[in-house]
Amino acid sequence: MGSKARGRPWHILRVCSRIPSGPLYWFSDDQIAQGLTYLVGTSASGDNGWLSAIEVPVEARVRCVEAIGKLFDRLFAPRCTQHLSHLSEVAAGTLNCVCYMWWDEFPCIALPCDPNLRRLSGTALTTMEHILGLGSLACQESALHGLGHWQRQHASEVARIIDAFVSSQTELDSRLLAYANAARCGCVL
Questions:
Q1: What is the tens place of the pLDDT at every residue in 151-163?
Q2: Exposed, middle or buried, 54 (CB in 10 Å: 0-12/13-18/19+)?
Q3: How far apart are CA 66 and CA 79, in angstroms?
Q4: N or C: fewer beta carbons within 10 Å in the chain?
Q5: Widest Cα–Cα separation across the chain
């Protein structure tokens, strides 16, 4: 995302909102991981402010955050392996890593002065809650990772979401349960 992207945040939002419906099936997991890292990974391109730009209509920003749930449902859930990245399991692979680090790498959703901060934060928390409901170990780990990072600013909502997830699971992997407990108090890296 070069300097042109910085000047047109609405264009980047439109592209990122359409990723979940794009034909990604012919790309390898490594290619998809590389493409997603380039498009949205702030460690690769920096946070150019395209999602937190107040001049972009809030509806477009909300659609982009909601599209993350579709991306997890249509891409990560069926393609990620049943391995945990926070435990550095070798077989996890590159796509699992992008899935796991999604909420670290995704651009800032809103700045503190944003009049739509509450709505955008609520949309992100709802999206993470949706992702927890997917039957994918990697997706659940990612959502817990994101919730762990959001715990400081949204402690009661994060606790509610994680508690509901844990209580709804009849056969929760003990490693994921330990990670859920860590995320509940914000103890994720």
A1: 999 999 999 999 9
A2: middle
A3: 20
A4: C
A5: 49
